[in-house]
Design brief:
alpha+beta, L,D-transpeptidase catalytic domain-like, 2 domains, two-stranded antiparallel ribbon
Length: 252
């Protein structure tokens, strides 16, 4: 009885003084209650551990960041040690399908994939599209820039190969992507960044696309703003801290 009470007391005190750790540590356990997550672990855990090891990382010590390029149909995965300074690319995936066109999402029903700086805000282990990671669209910048009554929502990185405004990765690859995100959250990462760009925003590419869309001054201005964040991330390889101007522009 004394030994039991001692263990119980330790657990209680740990929960009191380190509540965030306890909550995060239970996340993987909660996710394992779902059959599709258990399948992902069975099929993909070995692969992601190997991938992390090849990049000097371990399953219980990494943070995650996603970068997507719409016109390249590409999702890149970046990771770093929890206390590390810089992210490095560890994998990339082809985005299976696309809807809408280049440019930000501004209203419900426009079929657009958002462009901007977001984070994962939901995990759905029983999604209609196998597994899905919710993106926090619309963010404050989207709200300030849109004049629409309904901006829409429910934008996900998900399985399958169909989409209206989301990033479909196929059921096979979403197992890897979702499982990485589960472990990152279980490691204590409360917000997993998702940066969605219209294309790889090199100086030359931006010049090319500006010429193609030269009559759309509002879009070019928006892309010029995104380019500042793009350059900052690839220069520093660190998560970007963003605020929002009154007109909805990003402030880096």
């Amino acid at each position: 009885m004394h030994e039991y009470m001692t263990k119980a007391t330790i657990i209680l005190l740990f929960a009191i003084f380190f509540p965030s750790f306890v909550v995060q540590a239970n996340f993987l356990t909660e996710q394992k209650k779902y059959a599709r997550v258990r399948t992902a672990i069975k099929e993909k855990q070995g692969f992601i551990e190997k991938n992390l090891k090849e990049n000097q990382l371990t399953i219980d010590d990494f943070n995650l960041l996603f970068v997507a390029y719409k016109d390249n149909d590409l999702l890149e995965v970046y990771a770093k040690k929890k206390l590390g300074a810089k992210y490095k690319k560890i994998n990339s995936y082809v985005i299976c399908a696309r809807s809408g066109q280049l440019g930000p999402k501004r209203k419900q029903g426009d079929e657009q994939v958002p462009e901007g700086f977001y984070h994962i805000d939901r995990f759905n282990p029983s999604s209609s599209f196998y597994l899905s990671l919710g993106i926090n669209y619309p963010n404050l910048g989207d709200k300030r820039k849109s004049k629409a009554h309904n901006l829409g929502g429910d934008i996900f990185i998900h399985g399958s190969c169909v989409t209206i405004g989301c990033l479909p990765m196929t059921d096979n690859y979403i197992k890897e992507i979702y499982l990485l995100a589960v472990h990152a959250k279980n490691n204590g990462q409360s917000k997993i960044p998702v940066y969605i760009f219209p294309f790889k925003m090199t100086d030359q590419n931006l010049k090319t696309y500006k010429t193609k869309f030269k009559d759309n001054k509002e879009l070019i201005s928006f892309w010029d703003n995104l380019k500042i964040g793009y350059d900052k991330f690839f220069k520093d390889q660190k998560e970007i801290s963003v605020k929002f101007a009154e007109n909805g522009d990003y402030i880096f």
